[in-house]
Design a protein that fits this description.
single chain, alpha/beta, 33 helices
Length: 899
C-alpha cells in the first residue's frame, strides 16, 4: 500500500533524488499540510514513506494530515525514526538486553542474527567522567586513565557489541558528550536509502536528545526500552501532540546570554504547561538566533517538560552544517530537499496554526540563575542573595532550609587537595563550580565568554578560594581547540578551570568527592553549601550529596560566582573581591562585551577543525585501542562480573500474552510527594558503603575505592535494583517525610531499606505499589527508574500525574501506571502506610485510559473506593503490558516473523 506522491528533486551532486512529497499530498486533497507546524509535517513524512498497511495504516496518514490545531484528538501516531543515538550509561544496559535476547534466541536453537538493529545505532561513550582530579594541569590525563581502569569491563563489552551487531557503532571515550557529538558530527539533516531521501529524525536514550531540535531535526528522548524496540523495527508510538507556538521577536541585550534565554524559556513554558506537547519556535526573533543559541534552548525541553523544543530548518542551519565541516554536497542536498518539501525557512505569525501561542520579546530577557532545587525556579541576578537568605530561614516543609537562628556561622576547613591550605566556609559558600553540560558547552559564545571573563579577572589579580572545587568539562574537543587558539584556555587554567574530561561530569552527579575535611565540616555543622554549574539539572542530591543548594547559570557566571566564593551576594552591586591594587572589582568590570565575544568566535572556529577532530577516532584514542573485546554473535556471560550480568527480563518469557488481572492485598513500598524525579528513583552518582548496593559489592570482594558509580554499573541489575529509591534526598511519607531510601515493612511496622522490604514482600507473596503526587518521574529519562521499580516487584504506580517518559517506561517494563481521577483523593491515602490496596475493574477487555477502582483497606477495618485512570494510553501499550513489557513483546514478534 502506498500513496502516489513520490517525486524527485536535485541533490547536491546534481542527480535526481526521490522523495515523498508533502506538497503533492496536499495537492491531492489530503489535509491542509502547508498550515501544519513544521514539526508535525516531518512526522507526517515518516508516516507517508513507511505506509505499509501493517505498522502504518492509511488512516494514520489521514489523521495526521488533517491535524486539528485546537483539538488534535486522541489517536496514536506510529513514528518510524531514521536512526537512534545512545549514550553509554543507558547504551550499555540496552546492549546487555540485546545480548540477552540473542542468548534467549540461541537457547531456542534459533539464529541469533535475527536480533539485529534495523536502523543505524550510534553509541557515544560520554557519561563516564568523574571529577576525581580537578584544579591541576594533569586533570584530564589522570581522570581519563582512572576511567579506563574503572570501566575496562564495560568498554570490553562495547567492543564485543561493535563486532557482533552490523548496525551498531561506538564513538569512544574522550571525544565528547553525546548530544554535542550528535549536533557537531552525527546529524546529517537529510538521509538517503535506496535512492530515497528523507528527514534526519531520531530518538535517543537521554532526554536531552532534544538539543538537535535546534538544527531542525525532529527528535526526543525515550526510555531505553523504547529505544530498543525502535532498534528492532517497532515504531515509536505516541499520542498526537498539541503544538505550542512560541513567537520570538527582538534580540538579546548586551550582557544577556543564551543560557539566560534558556532559563527564561524554561520558567515560561513550565508555567504554561507543555508536558507531552511539542513546542515550536518561530518568528523574526527565532530567525535571528544563532544555531548554538537555538540548540541551547532546545536542549532544555525536558526541563520545561516538552517532548521537543523545535526550530524549523532555515539558512542558519545550512550555515551551521557547513561551518562544522559537513560537505558542500550534503549542505546543498539538505537545503534543496527541505525547499522541495515546502519546509525551508522559519514561519512568521499567521503562517502556521498552533494549539496555543506564547510571545517573547528577546530584549526583555534578564541575566538569571535557576535554583536551588529545580531548573524552572529562575531568579534574576540581583535577587539571588535575598532569595537564598529567604530560603535559608524558611521552613523545610516550605522548601527552605530551616536555619532561622543558626545561619552564616563561619567554619574553618583544611583543603588537603591543595597542600593542606586552610580556608573558611559558611552557609552559601560555593564548594563546587563547574562549567559542564551539553546545554552550554555546545555554544561558543558562552564558552568564549567564560574564557574572556577569566582573562580579565586574572589581569586584575582576582583568585578563587581554595575550598572551591573548580572544573571544566567541555562538550567536545572542538571547545578545547578554540579556547586554546584564542589563548583563553590558559586563562581558565590559571583560575582553576582545567579540563577534566570530555563528557558529562558534575551535571550528571559525577562531581567527584569533596575534600574529606570539608565534607566533615559541612555535615557536622549542617552548612548549606552551594554548587554553581552551567548544567541543566539541579535536583536535590544530583550534583553532590552533601551540597544542598545548586544553581544553574551561564559559564561566565559560573566563573564569577567561583571568584565571589558565595551565592550570598548581589553581583549587580556587590564586589567580587579586591584586585592586586587593593581596589574592589565588580562583575561589570570583567564582563565581556558582545563585540569581544564575536571577535573571538571569528578567529576561533573553522570547518577544518571539526573535520579533523571527528575522523579516525581510533588513532586519536590509544587507550581505547588497547582494550580487547571478545568475539562472536552471542556474549559469554560471566557470573562473577559486578559490571555486566544477564538480566532477568526473559526468565518467564512466553509467546502468549498474559492476562490482565486485578491486584489484591498490595502494600505500599513508598508514598511520595510532588516532584519526585527519576533522579530520586533511579540509582545515580556514588554508591554508599552502607547501602544495599554497597554491601553487595563488599560481599563480592569489591573494595570501596573501586565501587565506581551507579551509572557505570547499569549493566548489572543486581546493583541497580538495590539502588532504586535509595537516593539520600528522597522523602518517603511513610516515614514522616524523613530523607533516605527507607520504608516501613508492614504489618510488622519495621523500618528498613526499600530494597530489603521489597525482598521480604516478594518472599511472602505480597504485591506492592508506589503512590506519588504531581509530576512523578520528572527529569531525565533514566530507564532504570522503571527497570528498578519492576525488579523490586512493584505492580502499579498510582499518582496525581506523571512526566511523559517515565510513564511510558513503566508500561515498557510491565508496571501499571495509574492516575487519581480526582487529585484530592491523593490526600485520602498519603498517610495510610499501614493500609492494604486492591486495584479492581481491570481485565483483558481494558481500553486505553479506562477507569478502575482503587479499594483501600484501612487498618481500622474500614474501606474506601477511589476512582483511578489506568494510564495505558494506546492499544499497543496494552499489548506491551500484557506481554510483560516491550522487550518480551518484541521478542515474540521477531520469533513469529521468523517462524
Amino acid at each position: 500500500m502506498a500513496l502516489n506522491v513520490q517525486r524527485t528533486f536535485k541533490t547536491g551532486s546534481g542527480t535526481d533524488g526521490k522523495y515523498f512529497s508533502l506538497p503533492e499530498l496536499e495537492a491531492q486533497g489530503i489535509g491542509k499540510i502547508s498550515r501544519l507546524p513544521v514539526s508535525i509535517r516531518i512526522v507526517l513524512e515518516s508516516l507517508v514513506r513507511n505506509l505499509d498497511g501493517k505498522k502504518v495504516m492509511e488512516k494514520d496518514v489521514q489523521n495526521l494530515a488533517n491535524w486539528n490545531a485546537k483539538a488534535p484528538g486522541d489517536y496514536e501516531i506510529p513514528f518510524t525514526v531514521a536512526r537512534i543515538v545512545l549514550q553509554d550509561f543507558t547504551g550499555v544496559p540496552l546492549l546487555v538486553d540485546l545480548a540477552a535476547m540473542r542468548s534467549a534466541v540461541d537457547g531456542m536453537k534459533k539464529n541469533p542474527k535475527m536480533i539485529e538493529p534495523l536502523v543505524p545505532v550510534d553509541l557515544v561513550v560520554d557519561h563516564s567522567v568523574q571529577v576525581d582530579f580537578a584544579g591541576t594541569q594533569a586533570a584530564l590525563d589522570r581522570n581519563l586513565a582512572l576511567e579506563f581502569e574503572r570501566n575496562r569491563e564495560r568498554y570490553q563489552f562495547l567492543k564485543w557489541g561493535e563486532q557482533a551487531f552490523d548496525t551498531f557503532k561506538v564513538v569512544p571515550p574522550g571525544i565528547g558528550i553525546v548530544h554535542q557529538v550528535n549536533l557537531e558530527y552525527l546529524a546529517k539533516g537529510v538521509l538517503e536509502k535506496d535512492g530515497v531521501y528523507y528527514p534526519d529524525t531520531l530518538v535517543g536514550t537521554d532526554s536531552h536528545t532534544t538539543m538537535i531540535n535546534g538544527l531542525g531535526v525532529v527528535a526526543w528522548g525515550v526510555g531505553g526500552i523504547e529505544a530498543e524496540a525502535g532498534m528492532l523495527g517497532q515504531p515509536v508510538t505516541f499520542l498526537v501532540p498539541e503544538v505550542v507556538g512560541v513567537y520570538l521577536t527582538g534580540a538579546l541585550r548586551e550582557g544577556v546570554t543564551a543560557t539566560d534565554l534558556a532559563l527564561h524559556c524554561t520558567q515560561m513554558l513550565r508555567k504554561h504547561g507543555v508536558v507531552g506537547k511539542f513546542v515550536e519556535f518561530y518568528g523574526p526573533g527565532a530567525v535571528s538566533l544563532p544555531l548554538p543559541d537555538r540548540a541551547t534552548i532546545a536542549n532544555m525541553a525536558p526541563e520545561y517538560g516538552a517532548t521537543m523544543g523545535f526550530f524549523p530548518v532555515d539558512e542558519e542551519c545550512v550555515n551551521y552544517l557547513r561551518g562544522t565541516g559537513r560537505s558542500e554536497e550534503l549542505c546543498t542536498t539538505y537545503k534543496n530537499y527541505y525547499t522541495a518539501q515546502g519546509m525551508f525557512g522559519i514561519p512568521d505569525k499567521g503562517e502556521v496554526e498552533f494549539t496555543s501561542e506564547l510571545e517573547l520579546d528577546l530584549s526583555t530577557v534578564q541575566p538569571s540563575v535557576a535554583g536551588p532545587k529545580r531548573p524552572q525556579d529562575r531568579i534574576e541576578l540581583p535577587n539571588v542573595k535575598s532569595k537564598f537568605r529567604d530560603l535559608l530561614k524558611s521552613d523545610v516543609k516550605a522548601g527552605g532550609y530551616g536555619k532561622n537562628g543558626n545561619a552564616f556561622k563561619e567554619a574553618e576547613v583544611v583543603v588537603d587537595s591543595k597542600d593542606g591550605i586552610k580556608d573558611t566556609i559558611q552557609d552559601g559558600s560555593v564548594l563546587i563550580a563547574a562549567i559542564t553540560s551539553c546545554t552550554n558547552t555546545s555554544n561558543p559564545s558562552v564558552m568564549l565568554g567564560a574564557g574572556l571573563l577569566a582573562k580579565k579577572a586574572n589581569a586584575l589579580g582576582l583568585t578563587i578560594k581554595p575550598s572551591v572545587k573548580t572544573s571544566l568539562g567541555p562538550g567536545s574537543r572542538v571547545v578545547t581547540d578554540y579556547l586554546t587558539k584564542t589563548g583563553l584556555q590558559v586563562e581558565l587554567d590559571k583560575l582553576g578551570f582545567q579540563t577534566v574530561g570530555y563528557g558529562c561530569t558534575t551535571c550528571i552527579g559525577n562531581s567527584g568527592p569533596l575534600d574529606a575535611g570539608i565534607e566533615d565540616v559541612v555535615k557536622a555543622q549542617d552548612v548549606v553549601a552551594a554548587s554553581v554549574l552551567s548544567g541543566n539539572r539541579n535536583f536535590e542530591a544530583r550534583v553532590h550529596q552533601s551540597i544542598k543548594a545548586n544553581f544553574l547559570m551561564s559559564p561566565p557566571l559560573v566563573v564569577a560566582y567561583a571568584i565571589a566564593g558565595t551565592v550570598d551576594i548581589d553581583l549587580s552591586k556587590d564586589p567580587l573581591g579586591k584586585g592586586t591594587d587593593g581596589k574592589e572589582v565588580f562583575l561589570k568590570d570583567i564582563w565581556p562585551s558582545l563585540a569581544e565575544i564575536r571577535d573571538a568566535m571569528q578567529s576561533a572556529l573553522s570547518p577544518d577543525v571539526f573535520r579533523k577532530l571527528y575522523t579516525d577516532f581510533a588513532s586519536q584514542n590509544p587507550k581505547w585501542n588497547e582494550i580487547a573485546g571478545t568475539t562472536g554473535l552471542v556474549y559469554g556471560w560471566d557470573a562473577d562480573s559486578t559490571y555486566i550480568q544477564h538480566p532477568p527480563f526473559f526468565e518467564d518469557f512466553s509467546m502468549d500474552p498474559s492476562d490482565i488481572v486485578e491486584i489484591k492485598g498490595a502494600r505500599p513500598l513508598g508514598i511520595f510527594g510532588d516532584s519526585v524525579t527519576t533522579d530520586h528513583i533511579s540509582p545515580a552518582g556514588a554508591i554508599k558503603k552502607n547501602s544495599p548496593a554497597g554491601r553487595f559489592l563488599l560481599e563480592h570482594g569489591v573494595e570501596q575505592s573501586d565501587f565506581n558509580s551507579y551509572g557505570s554499573r547499569r549493566g548489572n541489575d543486581r546493583i541497580m535494583t538495590r539502588g532504586t529509591f535509595a537516593n539520600v534526598r528522597i522523602k518517603n511519607l511513610m516515614l514522616g517525610g524523613k530523607e533516605g531510601g527507607d520504608t516501613i515493612l508492614q504489618p510488622e511496622g519495621t523500618e528498613m531499606s526499600i530494597f530489603d522490604a521489597a525482598e521480604k514482600y516478594k518472599a511472602a507473596g505480597t504485591p506492592t505499589i508506589v503512590i506519588g503526587a504531581e509530576d512523578y518521574g520528572m527529569g531525565s529519562s533514566r530507564d532504570w527508574a522503571a527497570k528498578g521499580t519492576r525488579l523490586l516487584g512493584v505492580k502499579a504506580v498510582i499518582t496525581k500525574s506523571f512526566e511523559r517518559i517515565h510513564r511510558s517506561n513503566l508500561v515498557g517494563m510491565g508496571v501499571l501506571p495509574c492516575n487519581f481521577v480526582n487529585k484530592e483523593d491523593y490526600d485520602k491515602v498519603k498517610d495510610l502506610s499501614d493500609a492494604t490496596f486492591d486495584l479492581l475493574d481491570v481485565s483483558n477487555s481494558i481500553k486505553p485510559q479506562s477507569e478502575a477502582t482503587l479499594r483501600v483497606h484501612k487498618a481500622d477495618g474500614s474501606t474506601l473506593d477511589i476512582p483511578v485512570v489506568v494510564r495505558l494510553d494506546t492499544p499497543v501499550e496494552i499489548d506491551y503490558y500484557r506481554a510483560g513489557g516491550i522487550l518480551p513483546y518484541v521478542l515474540a514478534q521477531i520469533l513469529r516473523a521468523n517462524a
